[in-house]
Structure formats: C-alpha cells, structure tokens
C-alpha cells in the first residue's frame, strides 16, 4: 500500500495518470474503495482523479469518486459525479446508490427516493435499497409505503435489522402493535 501511495503522489506531482499494477482500472477502483474503507479518503480521491483523467468514460470511476466526496461531506460534488456516471452508463447501479446517499445528506428526499427506485428497477434483489427507501418513507410519514418496502427487504434478507426496525416503528405509528411486536421479536432472534 505504501508503494501505491507513493506512486499516486508522484503521479499527481508529475500530472501522469495513476493506474494500479497490471494497468487495470478495476484494480484501481478496488484499491480506492479499500482506501475509503480505511478512512484514507484523500488517497482514494487522488487515485480516482487520476483514473478519471486517463479514462474519462469510466462511469464506475465517477461513481466511486462521488462516494469519496460523500466522505468529505461534499454532497453536491458527489451528486455531480454520480450524474456524470449515469450520463455515461444509465444503468450504473453504484451511481444511483451513491447519488441517493448524497441526496439524502442534502435533504432532497424525493430525489433520494427516485434514485433508490431506479436502483431497485435495475436489480430487484437489492434488499438494502428497499430498506433505505423504507427508511426515507418512514421519515416522510409515508408509513404504508415504508411497510411495503420493509416487507420486500425482509423477504429478500430476513435478518435485515434496519428493515425490521423501520417496519416495527411504522407499525407502531399505524397503531398495529401486534405486527410491531412480531418485528421487534425478529430483531431479538
């Protein structure tokens, strides 16, 4: 990793594109994701900036740079990069996911719902997308929609504590305490 960091720094100084060993953009993106997971956001951003410079048509690179911008709390920049990714590749699931997160952080909840809906349309097996959309619906007081999405998330991933918690809270708000108790019991199992 120290070699990769040194390579990235030298490349920025020399304004040369950085690509992971082997010349693979997917390796570079994986390396950037690992750096983000480790909290080394600046290093990830250097890699992604360089990759985008050398491959301006790489939608996933833009989506991941959007992810990096979220770590820096630069939500509008994240939206812009994810939008660019979607212009390049309209079915880029990662771009919809990251842009939804950024819209949520910006308080633009309908846009967050729209992106989560697009993500679900691309891949209906994404339990986390249903659970995330359910949480937004709950926050907006759209309890029936929240319950519907929680039901879908739980059907896909029965131990989804986020979906179970949102379902329980929604049922409580609706006065359906027996159903809320069932959800809370599942959380404890």
Total strand segments: 0
Strand content: under 5%
The major sheet is characterized as:
none
The SSE order reads: HHHHHHHHHHH
Rg, rounded, reads: 19 Å
Which structural class do the helices and strands define?
Answer: mainly alpha
Mean pLDDT rating? 90
Name the helicity range: over 70%
- Separate helix tally: 11
Q: Using the alpha-carbon principal axes, give the shape.
A: elongated
Question: Terminal Cα separation, in Å?
Answer: 40 Å
Main features:
single chain, 189 residues, mainly alpha
Describe the structure.
Helix content is 77%, strand content 0%. It is an all-alpha fold. The termini are far apart.
Ordered list of secondary-structure elements with their pairings:
Blueprint: H1 2-14, H2 25-37, H3 41-54, H4 59-71, H5 75-88, H6 93-105, H7 109-122, H8 127-139, H9 143-156, H10 161-173, H11 177-188
Helix pairs in contact: 1-3, 2-3, 2-4, 3-4, 4-5, 4-6, 5-6, 6-7, 7-8, 8-9, 8-10, 9-10, 10-11
Briefly characterize the structure.
With 189 residues, the protein is mainly alpha-helical. The protein has helices at residues 2-14, 25-37, 41-54, 59-71, 75-88, 93-105, 109-122, 127-139, 143-156, 161-173, 177-188. α2 (25-37) runs parallel beside α4 and α10 (161-173) packs antiparallel against α11 (177-188).
